[in-house]
Amino acid sequence: MSTAPRPGEDGGHDVPGSHSPAQRAAVEGGAGRSATPIVRSHPLLKSLLGAWALAACSAEETAAVEAHLTDCAPCADEAVRLRDAVALLHPEDSLDLDPGLRARVLAGALNRRPARIPVPEWAAPYEAEASRLDALLRDIGETEWRAPVRLGWFDGRSPATREATVADVIGHLTAVDTIVAGALGMADPLRGASPEERTEALWAAEPGGRTPASVRSAWRDQEQTLIRTVSFAGEAAAELPVDYGPFALPLRDAFLDRAFECWTHAGDIAEAVDYPYAPPSPAHLNGMIDLAARMLPGAIAARRRAGLAPPARGLVVAGAPGRALHLEIEGRGGGHWYIALDSPGATGTPEGEVAHVALDGVEFCRLAAGHVPPEEAAAGSLGDEEAVRDVLYAAASLSRL
């Protein structure tokens, strides 16, 4: 007499081929895709517990495992342990990339990758800021190139603003870069024109008629040509005069000016399109602050000539320290500068200090860009109030469209 076990007599373990016709239909036919869990053997369902805990099972397998867990206490206990282990191994972190990751990777690459032809140290801030801006432009969509960007500066008396698009801002950078290009012997059809005149001429000639790709390409190609040219020329080009119209700078300072404007307008664009954007590296920021501090005595004198500031009160005597304001910059790019108050050609010294102003480095740059009203800029000031006012308003007057 046969003693072969009947289906279900193996202690709950199904024998292959022993399913009823209805069970086989559930596995092989359309019923397998219904909400009814697939009937599977205990060993198979137990082997699926790891995948189930990782949420890696198909819908049918998940239904089968969960139906089995209601009837099998050992598997249910094992399932709880596996789910707890998975929770430890896989915390529920966001899958979105850190918005600062690109900036850190780019900064690392710029700091570590040696160039075949070394870029002069004084041109490195411009190369870095142009590269960061180009990364931003690569990330935004074509429709964002038409986003309204608020350009702000200080006109000598009060804040001024102008609405532009992202494409307009990049065109503005291209137009002003031609001043530096002309100083290096490259084509400059508007030789002698001021930055504002060049920008207005470009905007009038191209009233939104170019594609974002062509606008970006024109700016980037010119920027890379400038970097390549000074890299070949080396230190011999550092003192070439660059005529901005109202003032002139040696080429090394003109490249710092271009780096500052790249960063400033990249920040304008980033704010318009809601893009995270960090300040420059501390070393580069320090160079930009130093340029602005060195330009302040001339800016104070220009405001006096225009009747926008009271006349100098100090008597300039050869060999004697003139009046000076101690400018203390805190945080990134920080340091100490002594600003001569009574003569644009003088050098400020600690012995002549009559006032002290403390500012955060990024905030000082925002002041010099015309983005912060001068009367609101100083974090702390001591001493001659007129001297403090002269320096803060002169710093804001360094800004332009």
UniProtKB/TrEMBL annotation:
**Putative zinc-finger domain location:** 47-76
Task: List the GO molecular function terms.
Answer: metal ion binding
Official protein name in the record: MDMPI N domain containing protein
Pfam families to which the protein is assigned, alphabetical? MDMPI_N (PF11716), zf-HC2 (PF13490)
Q: Does the keyword Metal-binding apply?
A: no
Annotated ranges, domain Mycothiol-dependent maleylpyruvate isomerase metal-binding: 127-270
Region entry Disordered, spans: 1-36
UniProt entry keywords in alphabetical sequence: Transcription, Transcription regulation
- InterPro entries xref list: Anti_sigma_zinc_sf, DinB/YfiT-like, MDMPI_metal-binding, Znf_put
- Presence of the UniProt keyword Transcription in the record: yes
Task: Tell me where on the tree of life, at the top rank, the source sits.
Answer: Bacteria
